[in-house]
Design goal:
With 540 residues, the protein is mainly α. The protein has 4 domains: 2-114; 127-147 and 155-203, no CATH class; 207-288, DNA polymerase, domain 1 (Orthogonal Bundle), CATH 1.10.150.50; 293-540, DNA polymerase, domain 1 (Orthogonal Bundle), CATH 1.10.150.50. Helix content is 62%, strand content 0%. InterPro entries: LIPB1/2_CC, LIPB1/2_SAM_1, LIPB1/2_SAM_2nd, LIPB1/2_SAM_3rd, Liprin, SAM, SAM/pointed_sf.
Length: 540
């Protein structure tokens, strides 16, 4: 409006000075008045629009404040859920650790139940009435001798049960199969139609199916029952029924191909088939490896020791024993649902420790010793639980439970050149902003591994082409083209090149007798082979 007033005054002056224009003063004034009204109207409209936009901006600011509040509350709930999830995972791992023990207890209870039922049937159905009375008398006499003047009601049920079992075992030792008891009792002849004559053969296992009869006979000459008994002993009892129909002798299995095993006795599980082939190859080569003494039950406890209890069910179902640990491949671990690159390295280092200790089942140390006298040769044999005890000793007890299920053990700490204190800090979930806490961990970690291992780790980290070890990297199977399938089919078991613990590292050159030098040589071998997993699988 001001601009309009100024322009109108200028025009008015110009009109007064120049009267020669064809337009009169009244016409110009009318035109300017119209322009003025139009401008006033536009200003009014713009003012209304500004007010409307101001209200929208205030509404948006209010909405933004509400959404910010909701975001903060959501983040708080997410953090709480993460804490709850971590707690639940710890509880889950704890429960998974208890499952194998409960299974063993269940098996023992079932075995005891079967033995009791067996003794009862043999005593009641086969023995005469006088012998049954003698069983009762013997049990009662044992109970009275143990009580020694104490009322039987005051004894614990466990003590009474143990006494009963011991008395039954004593009486069982006097029994002569198939149906005769102690020396002062005359033998009873089985008669058709008399005391269940078929009970003896049904309850007593054939004598040629025991281990003692197999030990002194070549496997190729084993009978069908001996082979079936051996299959049960190594954990492949589910294939006994079909094996009994197909196997004539041990030679049948020795000459069988993998296709025969899959076709005739339906061994479709690849690791079951591999387990059987490894055992048969040992019989063919007449070489008994020390690792063959470690069964699949021991392997489940070994997974507890190296900090990977979450894979116990898969290993147990696949019947992975000590011999199979030597010949595990990357694809075998992927079949067992072990996809973490860190867990692959954990199993690899643990197998190395087993080999150096000649597959001693008790080589891993589970309990803490003298914290002031630890050396790398001792740390390399620490179990996962022992590492958590070390964390508690260096004032990091609140982070120690985070190592459950991480696969961190002494062998991984010492032997893996890419495992540093930063990797351990990530596994412990120590926030990056807690620099003093991380520095404290680094100082104690370097003291734990020693100067030699620390120097080798640093040299490996400074090498060209080094890829840092992360906690989220995965291993994927190598993709094979169509032209590689024929070569893969012709590849024999001992020619596989993707063992998780390569064959050439099992026989290192002659070393000094001290454990420190021995593990130092192994560390060098691991350093040369540290990137092999990345060549086999693609890390993401």
């Amino acid at each position: 409006v001001v601009k309009y007033q100024d322009s109108w005054n200028i025009i008015r002056l110009e009109d007064c000075s120049s009267s020669g224009n064809g337009e009169s003063y009244q016409e110009q004034l009318s035109r300017l008045e119209g322009d003025k009204e139009s401008l006033v109207l536009q200003v009014s409209v713009l003012t209304d629009q500004v007010e409307v936009q101001g209200e929208k901006i205030r509404d948006l600011e209010n909405s933004l404040g509400e959404y910010q509040h909701k975001l903060n509350s959501t983040e708080d709930r997410l953090q709480q859920e993460l804490l709850n999830r971590s707690s639940l995972e710890s509880q889950k791992l704890g429960l998974m650790e208890e499952v194998p023990g409960l299974k063993l207890k269940q098996g023992n209870m079932e075995e005891k139940h079967i033995n009791r039922k067996y003794i009862y049937l043999l005593a009641v159905c086969v023995c005469p009435t006088g012998i049954t009375e003698k069983i009762k008398d013997t049990t009662n006499s044992d109970l009275s001798s143990v009580s020694s003047g104490v009322d039987s009601s005051q004894q614990s049920p466990v003590l009474q049960e143990n006494v009963k079992n011991s008395s039954i075992r004593k009486l069982w030792g006097k029994m002569k199969r198939p149906g005769v008891l102690s020396d002062d009792i005359e033998p009873i002849q089985f008669k058709r139609g008399g005391f269940r004559a078929t009970a003896g053969p049904r309850l007593i296992r054939a004598p040629d199916s025991g281990r003692s009869s197999r030990a002194h006979t070549s496997f190729s000459k084993w009978t069908t029952e001996q082979v079936c008994g051996w299959l049960e002993d190594i954990g492949l009892g589910q294939y006994v029924s079909l094996a009994r129909q197909w196997v004539d002798s041990g030679q049948t299995l020795l000459s069988a191909t993998p296709r025969d095993l899959e076709k005739e006795i339906c061994i479709k599980h690849p690791l079951h088939r591999k387990k059987l082939q490894l055992a048969l190859r040992a019989f063919s080569n007449k070489t008994m490896e020390k690792s063959s003494e470690l069964d699949h039950i021991w392997v489940t406890h070994w997974l507890d020791d190296i900090g990977l209890p979450q894979y116990k069910d898969q290993f147990y179902e696949s019947k992975v024993d000590g011999r199979m640990l030597q010949y595990l491949t990357v694809n075998d671990l992927l079949f067992l649902k072990v996809t973490s690159q860190l867990h692959h390295l954990s199993i690899k280092c643990a197998i190395h420790v087993l080999h150096v200790n000649k597959f001693n089942p008790n080589c891993l140390r589970r309990r803490p010793g003298d914290e002031n006298k630890t050396s790398p040769s001792e740390v390399v044999q620490w179990s996962n639980h022992r590492v958590m005890e070390w964390l508690r000793s260096v004032d990091l007890a609140e982070y120690a439970p985070n190592l459950r299920g991480s696969g961190v053990h002494g062998g991984l700490i010492i032997l893996e050149p890419r495992f540093h204190s930063e990797t351990l800090a990530m596994l412990l979930n120590i926030p990056p902003q807690k620099t003093l806490l991380r520095r404290h961990l680094t100082t104690n970690f370097n003291t734990l591994v020693g100067p030699q291992a620390q120097q080798e780790k640093q040299e490996f980290a400074n090498a060209s082409g080094h890829t840092p070890l992360t906690t989220t990297a995965k291993v994927r199977p190598k993709k094979l083209g169509f032209t590689h399938f024929r070569q893969l089919r012709k590849l024999r078991m001992d020619e596989s090149a993707d063992y998780i613990c390569p064959m050439d590292t099992w026989n290192p050159p002659a070393m000094s007798g001290t454990p420190k030098r021995r593990y130092g040589s192994f560390r060098g071998i691991l350093a040369r082979d540290s990137d092999r997993l990345e060549q086999v699988g693609n890390a993401i």
